[in-house]
């Protein structure tokens, strides 16, 4: 049996011995701030270093320092207020220095520029900037002078009377105006007549069949490469039909008489889009995209004189005459269309849909009849 090395309490009682007292529990030492340290910090007195107690003279020095520190006590509010009042009174009693009494400081002269012997003085601004400034000022003066001169020409009629149009030009303008007025009356009369016929047919319970259009607008939607393939596959007559618009690149467009070319259009139908344009489409084409053939050159139609020089012998002297001749397919239709350069149009907004399919099948080529106007509005 294992026996404990320490004697049990029972054995101790029997032997008459007492048990040893239990060792006291160790406590954690927490250093508290002593009031002496705080007072020393406030009085700005160095804290005495701890020295071994065996050295003589240390205890007396420490006691003296403590005695000095203990004499210091914090000031009361009344004492602080009294000190402030005394300080303010001393500041007020002190005489203020007059501005005359201030010492005058002599201005320091600027240092003289030092010039190097035998060296050129460099300009403060680069030469190129000076030239630009000079040129800018001269241009501005010239512009202002031109504006003033133009102003005097416009508003000072005593010095610069406005040029009056000649009698011939006034007569010509009146002639053009009367022709345009006559054409507008003719167009409106035709529209009213058409509406009247539709109403009469509706009253009688019948249907009016519109007259066959005399005018066709032809547009090639496939390029020269497709022309060549078409020529190889079919026959030479197709190539002749495709060359009829005389346009080297797509999209070409010309006005053609329907009766003369209807058979050729049917042959070349897979490569063209065509239909019957209205008056609005023709006007937009001539006014916005109109170019004339003058001296074998493509010249924009900017005034009526250009048309008069080329087509005066045919009785066409202005743009309105040209539009009327094309829309009504008059006697001089061939001369009018030959004078116009084939129209160059943009691709339609949204692009083409299925060029290889017929318009009836949801494609692009073929006869669109009056729906060609919708396509033209997207391309002009």
From TrEMBL:
Entry annotated with the keyword Oxidoreductase: no
Ranges of compositional bias, category Polar residues: 1-12
Domain (Large ribosomal subunit protein uL30 N-terminal eukaryotes) ranges: 167-211
Region (Disordered): 1-59, 87-119
InterPro entries documented for this protein: Ribo_uL30_ferredoxin-like_sf, Ribosomal_uL30, Ribosomal_uL30_euk_arc, Ribosomal_uL30_N_euk
Entry-linked Gene3D superfamilies: Ribosomal protein L30, ferredoxin-like fold domain
Listed GO biological process terms: maturation of LSU-rRNA from tricistronic rRNA transcript (SSU-rRNA, 5.8S rRNA, LSU-rRNA)
Molecular functions (GO terms): RNA binding; structural constituent of ribosome
Record's keyword terms, sorted: Ribonucleoprotein, Ribosomal protein
Annotated Pfam families: Ribosomal_L30_N
Family annotation (CDD domains): Ribosomal_L7_archeal_euk (cd01657)
Basic residues: bias regions: 26-52
GO-annotated cellular components: cytosolic large ribosomal subunit
Signal peptide: none
Protein name as it appears in the record: 60S ribosomal protein L7
Source species: Chionoecetes opilio
């Amino acid at each position: 049996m294992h026996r404990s090395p320490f004697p049990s309490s029972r054995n101790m009682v029997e032997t008459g011995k007492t048990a040893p007292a239990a060792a006291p529990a160790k406590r954690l030492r927490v250093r508290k701030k002593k009031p002496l340290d705080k007072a020393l910090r406030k009085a700005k007195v160095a804290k005495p270093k701890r020295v071994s107690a065996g050295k003589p003279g240390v205890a007396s020095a420490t006691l003296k320092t403590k005695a000095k520190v203990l004499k210091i006590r914090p000031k009361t509010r009344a004492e602080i207020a009294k000190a402030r009042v005394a300080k303010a009174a001393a500041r007020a009693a002190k005489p203020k220095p007059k501005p005359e009494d201030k010492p005058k400081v002599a201005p320091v002269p600027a240092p003289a520029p030092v010039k190097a012997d035998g060296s050129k003085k460099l300009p403060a601004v680069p030469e190129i900037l000076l030239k630009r400034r000079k040129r800018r000022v001269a241009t501005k003066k010239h512009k202002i002078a031109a504006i003033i001169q133009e102003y005097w020409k416009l508003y000072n009629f005593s010095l610069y009377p406005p040029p009056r149009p000649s009698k011939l030009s006034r007569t010509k303008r009146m002639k053009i105006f009367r022709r345009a007025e006559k054409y507008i009356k003719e167009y409106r009369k035709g529209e009213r007549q058409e509406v009247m016929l539709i109403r009469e047919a509706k009253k009688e319970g019948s249907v009016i069949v519109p007259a066959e259009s005399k005018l066709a607008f032809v547009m090639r939607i496939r390029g020269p490469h497709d022309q060549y393939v078409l020529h190889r596959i079919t026959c030479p007559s197709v190539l002749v039909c495709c060359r009829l618009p005389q346009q080297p690149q797509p999209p070409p467009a010309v006005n053609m008489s329907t009766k003369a070319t209807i058979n050729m259009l049917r042959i070349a139908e897979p490569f063209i889009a065509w239909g019957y344009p209205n008056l609005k489409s023709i006007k937009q084409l001539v006014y916005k995209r109109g170019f004339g053939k003058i001296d074998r050159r493509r010249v924009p139609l900017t005034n009526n004189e250009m048309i008069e020089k080329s087509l005066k012998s045919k009785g066409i002297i202005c743009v309105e005459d040209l539009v009327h001749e094309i829309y009504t397919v008059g006697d001089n239709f061939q001369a009018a269309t030959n004078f116009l350069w084939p129209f160059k149009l943009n691709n339609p907004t949204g692009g083409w849909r299925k060029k290889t399919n017929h318009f009836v099948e949801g494609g692009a080529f073929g006869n669109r009849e009056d729906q060609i106007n919708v396509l033209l509005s997207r391309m002009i």
